[in-house]
Amino acid sequence: MIDKLHILYWFLSHRFTRWFHPSGVSRWRKWRWFKNLRKSAYYQSKVQSNTPFPVIEKKEFMAQFNTINTVGLDREESYRTALTAESTRDFSPEINGVSVGLSSGTSGVRGLFLTSRRERAIWVGAVLDRVIGWSFKKRSVAFFLRANNNLYEAVNSKLLAFRFYDLKIRMEDHLPDLECNKPDILVAQPSVMLELAKAKLAGQCTIAPSRLISVAEVLEDDYRKTIEAAFGVRVDQVYQCTEGFLGYTCTEGRMHLNEDWLEIERHFIDDEGVRFHPIITDYLRYSQPVVRYELNDILHLGAACSCGNPSTVVDRIEGRSDDIFYLEAIDGQVIRMYPDFIRRAVVTADCPPDDFAVYQVTGNRIELDLRSGDDAVSDEIFDSVHDNLTKLFMDFGLHDVEIRRTRRFNQTMNKFRRIQNENHTKHAV
Predict the structure, then answer these.
(1) pLDDT digits (tens, 9 = 90+) for 222-247
(2) What does the mean pLDDT of the chain come to?
(3) Which entry of 154, 192, 319, 397 is 20 to 30 Å from 54 by CA?
């Protein structure tokens, strides 16, 4: 268990730093973190010799799990513990007081993440300050996730009742419990929220949460509109992944990065200086240091926000670099196609589908899974989307892209990604 006073301390600490260090990490916090970093075999020599830290990506981060973590945990033992928790759906076991979680693996590498009891208190304090907000009124939270974790269970208190809803269980089976629970706050993937929104619009669900918080997936504009129309509440976002709690929606509805404990470098991937990969150093991660860790998420840099918080604003999370399509023109030039271009071509078709997924299967072959409700769409809708995508490709000098129909939607336990590149050939463009 986490001491509630410890959580209160971190809640107040986050509130203080949000007011006084909103766009920079304090020297004291950096000093404590550097002191702890000496316990990591991977970073120890670099700290002692004052050598610059290398940029690290997920594959290397997992390969070096044993030497990076500071609590002496073994990768194979940790992996077995996390897999057992997933198979039994009992997420309470710890190793020496440390919780082990497992990412969904949508990037191709399943990530292990460690959280000590101290780090869980830090996370709960941050969530209370940035996401849920403090209230003396008792509130209930419905949390839909692929896997539970002691990290999430730590939110429970006399004022906040947390209830985990397992995505492995059908939504129809969750509805009776949701009706009894009547959550004040709903935290879920956008694809799950959409299911609940449709159930509410159909009269199968009467819950009326006062807060909607989107996690884990890209929040598509059409999903947002449907969800907000059904519940009459704005959808806020939390930007969190295996690597930590990175950002949240402010009172003005804009996404801010948590730069009072994160140092975030920008690796721009376009010529306009808009799209970038964040390179993260987290000064509150002690058991598994995150140092110059480059995510392959594509973030859009935003302008300053009127809420008064000067920390970096993210206009949108476009997807992952793994989802960029690489298509070959007649002259042999490889054209980079960002997910937003594909997404926009589908939704602006004369006869757009209700839902869709687009896959680059191999080379210049594209597959479309278009849906109207739960059913495959008519030829008219397919032809409309096909024509719009063909026009897009031709605008980029691509005249021989093959576009086929497919049917393989499966959102049950996975993060829903509308744009997916399944062609693993790497291109330098």
Answers:
(1) 889 999 999 999 999 999 887 789 99
(2) 86
(3) 319
Instruction: Identify the pLDDT of residue 56.
Output: 95
Residues 6+ apart with CB under 8 A from 71: 96, 98, 114, 116, 287, 288
For domain 324-421, give the fold: GMP Synthetase; Chain A, domain 3 (3.30.300)
**Looking at residues 39-49, what average pLDDT do you find?**
91
1 contact partners, CB below 8 Å, separation of at least 6: none
Confirm whether 4-320 and 324-421 share one CATH topology.
no
**Distances in whole angstroms, Cα of residue 89 to Cα of each of 81, 166, 167, 421:** 12, 9, 11, 31
- Rounding to the nearest 10 degrees, give the CA dihedral for residues 281, 287, 288, 291: 20
Beta strands in 133-222 (DSSP E): 139-145, 160-166, 185-188, 211-214
* Average pLDDT value for residue range 101-113: 70
Question: For residue 129, which phi and psi values (nearest 5 degrees)?
Answer: -75, -45
pTM: 0.80
Type and span of the H or E element at 370? strand 365-372
CA distances from 130 to 24, 43, 277, 350 (A): 17, 31, 23, 41
Fold of 4-320: Rossmann fold (3.40.50)
Closest residue by Cα to residue 164 from 68, 263, 155: 155
Q: What is the mean pLDDT of residues 62-73?
A: 95
User: What pLDDT is stored for residue 428 in this prediction?
Assistant: 43
